Amino acid sequence: MNYTQICKAFNDLTxxxxxxxxxxxxxxxxxxxxxxxxxxxxKDYACHHLLLFDDEQELVAYARIVPAGKSYTEASxxxxxxxxKVRGTGVGKILTQAAIDAAKNLYGDVPIRIGAQYYAVKxxxxxxxxxxxxxxxxxxxDHIEMLRA
Length: 149
What we know:
The chain is α+β, with helices and mostly antiparallel strands and 149 residues long. It is 27% helix and 34% strand. It has three helices and seven strands; from the N terminus they run βαβββαβαββ. A seven-stranded mixed beta sheet has the order 1-2-3-4-5-7-6, with helices on both faces. β3 and β4 (75-82) form a beta hairpin. The termini are far apart.
């Protein structure tokens, strides 16, 4: 399957794109993972938003590109999510590599830090991230910080 990638600053998103990304984040993080948390955390305004659409123009994957100093000292990638319909197809790797590339385009060749769900450590290690620190609980799910130098 081919995916259309769009990366935009918050103020450049259309109302429809914003609705779609908030809906996908809510479907996965709040409903599927059963986490009660405030997804609209005021960081979105400062970030770029990477959206992957399928051939039918449905949003199937998303990541938030976060400037240094907003979540961590380093630039970061967050809210990495894919819809159930495309899991197991390699879209996660496509999305995450595209997010790394977008961060490089935006901020230069800088380190990128993520707060990874612990079960996904091996996935992120394949993309050059290394674990740092201890496992911590975030919204009832084990996480660990990872850095891509």
